[in-house]
Amino acid sequence: MTQMTQICADQKEMMSRNLAMVLTPKGVGAIGVVRLRGEGVESFLGTYFSRKVIEGRCVHGEIRDADVVLDDAVVVRGGDFVDLNLHGGVWVVRAVLELAEREGFEVIEDALEMMDGGTVLEREVMAALPRAGTNLAIRALLSQMEAWKSVRKEDAAGIMKDESLWWLLHPPRVAIVGIPNVGKSTLANQLFARERSIVADVAGTTRDWVGELANIDGLMVMLVDTPGIRGMGDEIEREAIERSGEEVRGADLVIVVLDQTQGREGQMELVRKYPGAVVVVNKVDRAGEWKAGDGIRMVAIRGEGVEELRREIRRRFGVEGMEVRRARWWTERQREILGGVARGERSLNEM
Question: What is the pTM of this model?
Fold first, then answer.
């Protein structure tokens, strides 16, 4: 079988499969778009949609599960696929996906075969859009088709080193560590710009790690607020610290929070343990027992120093002051091609 014959066979197999994919970013939004593709599209529409769908036209109707109306949606059909434009609530999208699964559709993510576009690069842009959770990520991603037109082979090595678009589409994990009562949860609340961790002037208030997405001025990060690290405590607290240790070891960036009003030895041990960490010195408005060295000086409860920390987080992941119109990579396929071009083994035409 020739390579072209194999490609045609693979495409035919893909077209015969019933696939479902969410085209919009995860989470709550004004609109949630679910794309269905395959031989089961006609059956799905006939069973669950209240009106006949005409190809190339927007049709407004109800998506029903028996007598229950799940949503009033706008449906657009093109060939073997259909886009269900839903209200963007998480429950609505999940309920429609469950209907699709019931009808034999396989729910997938990042499938190029489900995307519009005349080239692989264009389809990769469309496939990555659901991951673009901020305006900065969307702008940088949508600029790539034009940006790549002016790339030269001598640019490949430099582009490979720029991971900023990858991080914009794959939120890094950022762990906040420190001994009890240094202000980790207060700092986390400032980074989230809202209250979400329990904060109290009592050591050990946070008894388990808390992970949630935070928008750091265009960069989405999974912020992990861990319980205070110390060598004592009850059984529940010890287990929480052990579990949080796994989160810290898997973090892409660690923030070590110091407090000069508490003992020095255990805190500096954390600085030595995480040599690549961002060091924050909190409560600098109070008289200290010792003097911390380099670090971002902060009064977290008043928000002082928080903007400097936000800038440093963005800088660590290459998005501080980034020029969105520069060519960047965001898939392993692109990275492999760039590596081959830099070594003189591949061509930019493969992009």
Answer: 0.76
